[in-house]
Please model this.
Amino acid sequence: LGGNNAMVVTPNADLDMATRAILFGAVGTAGQRCTSLRRVIVHESVKDALLEKVLKAYGNLRIGNPLTTGNLVGPLIDKGAFEMFSAAIERAKAQGGKVLTGGKRVHEDTAPDAYYVQPCIIDMPDQTEVVKDETFAPVLYVLTYSEDLVEAINIHNDVPQGLSSCIFSRDMLEVERFLSASGSDCGMANVNIGPNGAEIGGAFGGEKETGGDRESGSDAWKQYTRRTTNTINYSTELPLAQGVNFG
Model:
């Protein structure tokens, strides 16, 4: 199962809003949520402006005990999660990625048994093998598209997972395309809001390796019912199918 959730940022996006959504989606819960943001697919014309905002926001992150007011990023769940985090970064670098920020362990002296890390952003030349694998940690891959939304959607859909997705755009044609049958192939598609947090009250679930069922929302009751078909003839005649005639 799992989710390799992406955000498409078009030239028509509100970059301030996208930045807030990226920050919350990628580093909230230290990236350890099935709907955490894993990939940003941004048009080349707004990439530099977006990254400037996102890197500034990452620079202000407070990492530490999540019970302490003001800390946004808590620890990874265990040593194994930290090793997976570190291995993914090394794989990404080997596949041409450039680490823009983060990737190191912190607070080792004061919390030797906890695994606090700096959330990492990696600029990738394309969607390589490591990007297609879900790393359950705060690693965010940045991918670039240069043509139209179709190119971005093709990149978006070219992963085995299909849980949540989102697009940031103020162009309704782009939005409608992303939500259509030829758009996002995920179970959940959001507009101008991140991939996590907006699904409460809706049918939750994914496609492809993420599975094909839904829970909660309007589909919740269906999981607990056995549906039958009942046909009642209230007439004094017996309707017959396929033109059968006993006369």
User: Anything to note?
Assistant: The two ends are 59 Å apart (CA to CA). Helices lie at 15-27, 44-59, 79-94, 129-132, 149-157, 172-179.
